[in-house]
Every structure is written in C-alpha cells, then in structure tokens.
Specification:
homodimer; alpha/beta; Rossmann fold; 3 domains; 6-stranded mixed sheet; DNA-binding
DNA sequence: CTGAAAGCGCTTACAG
DNA sequence: CTGAAAGCGCTTACAG
C-alpha cells in the first residue's frame, strides 16, 4: 500500500480510502490510485486490516473427518452459511482424537477466527473458556460439549434408533442384532439406548450376545455375525448404528438373509434397497452455523440446545418377517 | 501480551521470549510470565505474529464441492500433508463457477495464504500472476490451469476411459452408450476422447446418437436411455463418465439389462457389483499438496505436470456379452 | 477532498 | 538475562 501511495503520489490514507471505496475521494485521484494498484498487482492484506478491526471474517470447523460423506455434507452447509455472512472457513479433521481436536481448535483460536463449529471428540472443553469470555462464538454440533455451556445442535439419535428398531419389531422380529460404533462415542451410546428402549417397549429382552460395539469394519462385522449365527437362538434382523456399520454389515452378510435397517442414509442406499433412519447433515450444518452467526450478530441469550429429527425411509431390506 | 507483561512486571519482549520458548530467560521470570499467561487466559495472536514474519502457515484449497466424496477425499489428503507441515487449510467450493472460484482464490490471497491448491472451474488464471510473482505457491489439481504456468496434477482421464470402453468391447459390445458430464468440463472432454479412441481402435464407428453429455441426474439419464433404447440399433452397454453419472444410470436402468462400466469408484460400488475405472482422489491430493510444499520449501524448477494412472476394477456389471 | 500521527499485537535488530 | 525502539500493513481519529 505504501508502494501504491508512492507511485500514485498520494498519502497512504488516500489509497486506503480508494481500496475501501470510502466516499469523498476526487475521482481523478481515485483513477490514479487504481492505476497504481493495477500496475503493482497490489492486493490488500486482510490480515493487517483485521488486526485493527478485531474481526477476521473467518470461522473454524472441526469435524471428525473432512473426507467422510456425513461430515463433508455438514461442512458444505456451514460453508454456505459462512459465505452468506462474508466469512471464510478453516476446516480440519480431529480423527476422533481429543488431543488433535484441541490442537486444531487452539490453532484456529490463535488465528483469531470469529467463531467455531466443533464436532467434539473429547470430553473436556473448559480450555475454551477464555475464548468464550473474549466473545468468540462457539457452537457444538452432532455431540454435546464436555463441560462448557455453549450452543449445541444434536440429532435425535435415541428416537431414530428406537424407531428403526421398532420398525423391525413390527415385522415380527424378536432377535435383533446391534452392530455399531463404540458406546464411548456419544451418538453410538444414544442410539444403543434407543435400540434398548424399543426392545423394552415391545417386551423383548436385551441380550448382550446380540450387541457388537465397534463392528464398523467388514472384518469386525463378519466376525460378529459369525458369532451370532452360531447362537442357539440366532438373530433374524440387524440394526446398524451408522453408515459405516451398515455397509460393513452388508458386505459381511453374504448368503445370510437377515432383515436389516441402519442409522444414516448414504448415497446409493436406494439402489441397494436399504432401509435407513436418515439424519440430515446439511440441516445440522445449517442450524449450527446459523446459531453461530446469530451469536456473532450479538445474540446474548442463554446457550441453546436444538435437537433435529430423523426420518425412517423404508426401502425393502427391513420389511420382511423372520426367515 | 501487553497485559501479561504488565501483570508479570516484565517488558513485552520478555513475554514474547517465553511464549516463543526462546532461550536465555531466567527460569524464575519465565515462571512468573507463564503464571500471568494462565491467569489472563492469554493466547498469542498468530495473525499479528505472521504480519511480521511473512508466512501465515495456512494454505487455501478450492474444489468444486467440499461435500462431494471425490473432492472431500482430495481435501483429506491435502489436510494431512498440510498438517505435517504445520499448516492450516482454508477450504471452499467453487460450485463449477469461475466467478466464485476467483472470489475464493482472491479471498485466500487477501488472507496471505502461503499457497493454493486449486481445482479450476474457470479458464482464465492470469489474475494469479501477481501472487505467483510474489512467491505464493500455486498447484492445480484434477484439471489444468487456463493460462498460467504452474504445477499441475492430473489423472489419466483419457487412458482410463479408453481402458473402460475397451473392456466392454472385449466382451463383444459394439454399441456402447456414453453418459457423462458436459464436455465443457475438462475431465469429461478427456474421458469422452478416451471413449472415442477405444471405439476407433476396435474399428467401431462413433455414433453421436449414443452420446448423452450432461446426463448426470437420474432424470437426464432416464431420458437418454429411453431415447437410445428406441433406436433401430440400440446400445447393449453403457460407459458412464463419472460417479454421479454411474449412479444416475443405475437408477435409470430399470429392467434394461445393459452391461455397464463407469469412471470413478464410489463407496459401496462393490456391493452393487459395478465395474469401474477408479481414480485415487487421496493420491491426487497428496501429490498436489506435496508439490505445493516443495515449492514453499524453495523448489524453483520449471512447473511440473504429473499425470496419475487409473485402475480398472471388474466387479461384474460389465463382464457379460450383449443380451 | 487529503494527509500526518498513533496504534492493532506482535517480532526484529540492537543496546545494555 | 532483559528491555526500549522501530516496524510489519493496515485503520482510526483527528486536523487541515
């Protein structure tokens, strides 16, 4: 900017005015400045500008994996909202590691992002206290924060899993296997709870032999299904706790003809005729980002918790009686 | 930092030294400073720091859609490389819009990112000239840049499509339909070229009636297949130009029993038994980011162009003679 | 309509 | 081992 001022023969402040399209600049002067800008290929340094103004017009997004279809859908929605507010998005993957989550969050804070949308991997978020106090917006998505009062957007995991399990029960299944993530993960624990609720409501016993937590790979799913098939009273249906578990189960099923319903919709689930309990990552992202920008716009209400509904989509894999 | 210095009763510079873990600070002083930092919840402002040092330890990534599985895989790979180099990633979606691409790129430049990985939507990248001259690293991925000499990582689209089409031909197909994106998109044009090459090499005529460009939605695919089925000499096989076209074609096929092979692998393609020509988005991202950080480390060689191979994965949908 | 001075939060280069 | 001064590239607040 100094160089531009020199070349145009004006003061720094005048260049600043032209760049910011502030009124009250002689048109002829403005033209001279713009020519100099063009000639020098000058681009304003946003970092320097924002050092004064306080805001960085950027937000940080921490998700489990930017490459995962569910979270990348969420990202897309956050991006859209951010863009509408003139904000850029730093995004990073925690990989379900609390240490990495903290690193990322603090790196974003050090860049002085205006706000943060976080899918928490860890349980402890007290370290965000100073940021919150300093006016940074923080919204947790998909899972609640550990020990920090902040806006949160969740999905009705329990209700969805309950509905999916009840759906299988309504077709006459009494032995329903559960394949899903470790209950150390909030959403998995909630869904397992929904599964148990549906069983209880139907007067069915909860049988730990039918529960495979951590069975989200093909190998693990196969092992679990092999074990369960060998039971005296094997399952006739499966409820899978997330998209990865569903695909793993489908791969592992082989010739077994169990009914199946799964949590999470995925792109060609319709082609596979898989019945799912769908959650909406785009709506999740929209809602979380909406909350964040409302805070940044000055909303000072108490922290909110929003719970989004799920939707059962019957496609054939679940709608059959026990073989 | 000023507040910390005040509270600890030292000069600004001493706080700076402690924060940067520079040697030569009295341990007792350091402890006092660290206490003040803790008490105040102080976090160094990276933006201010980098204003002096020049580097921002961040890069920008422009892809077509952060929510698309192919590009989000690329993102994940770029993130991993960036992380290894201590860099954060701004990411944004161009939505195949050259104007939006330019906006994003310039917004990243204004934030003074150290480098850029761009999947170009537009044809003109001369506007990046000043940045390149100023030492910013720029790598184009998936598609070549318009009119700027910069590192580029591509996929062997032509060779892949040629191999996929030849695969269908090897099973006796002579009438092979093409469903894909508009040839205005570089990768689509290249793949169409590969399809034509395979036909020519087999002595088969190129029939425009069998080519549906823009057929990447279920409706468009259905319309195209309806039209082609009604031909006097209908196709017996389909080659789809990308993942979306493959899924659209599968949805549109209905009772028609065409052989099918498609460009792009997708998550449960194995469950659907779909034969694909797979490209590797993770490798694409790794390679592009690797090139970028090599530049940032001082590599001054002439711009490179790297072309990555594809891999044909037979899964059943293509391996059958004409009905 | 235009500009000189001070300052955003930090580091660099130098002095003690 | 510690600090006062200048400056990174910009804006704010004020004066002319």
């Amino acid at each position: 900017m100094k160089d531009v001022a020199l070349l145009a023969g004006v003061a720094l402040k005048t260049v600043s005015r032209v760049v910011n399209e502030e009124p009250g600049v002689n048109p002829a002067t403005a033209v001279r400045v713009r020519e100099a800008i063009e000639r020098l290929g000058y681009r304003r340094n946003e970092g320097a500008r924002l050092l004064r103004s306080g805001r960085t017009a950027s937000i940080g997004l921490v998700i489990e994996d930017v490459g995962d279809p569910f979270y990348s859908g969420l990202f897309r929605a956050v991006e859209d909202v951010a863009r509408r507010h003139g904000s850029l998005v730093f995004a990073g993957s925690s990989g379900e590691d609390p240490v990495r989550e903290r690193e990322l969050v603090l790196a974003f804070c050090a860049r002085r992002v205006d706000g943060l949308v976080v899918v928490p991997a860890g349980e402890d978020h007290a370290y965000l206290g100073p940021e919150l106090a300093a006016g940074m917006g923080v919204v947790f998505a998909d899972r609640p924060a550990g020990n920090l009062a902040a806006d949160t957007v969740l999905v009705d995991n329990r209700g969805g899993a309950r509905a999916g399990t009840a759906h299988l029960i309504s077709y006459g299944h009494r032995r329903i296997a559960w394949l899903g993530d470790s209950p150390a993960i909030f959403t998995a624990a909630e869904r397992l709870r929904g599964y148990r609720t549906a069983l209880a409501e139907a007067g069915l016993p909860y049988d730990p032999c039918l529960v495979a937590s951590g069975a989200t790979t093909t190998e693990a799913a196969r092992a679990a299904l092999d074990r369960m098939s060998a039971l005296a009273d094997p399952p006739t249906a499966i409820f899978t706790g997330n998209g990865r578990a569903t695909i793993a189960a489908l791969r592992a099923l082989g010739p077994r003809r169990y009914a199946l319903a799964g949590f999470d919709d995925f792109e060609p689930a319709d082609l596979l005729g898989v019945t799912v309990v769908a959650q909406d990552p785009v709506r999740l992202g929209h809602t979380a980002a909406g909350l964040l920008f409302a805070r940044l716009a000055g909303d000072r209400d108490a922290p909110r918790e929003i719970v989004l509904p799920t939707r059962l989509i019957p496609r054939g894999s679940a709608e059959r009686p026990p073989a």
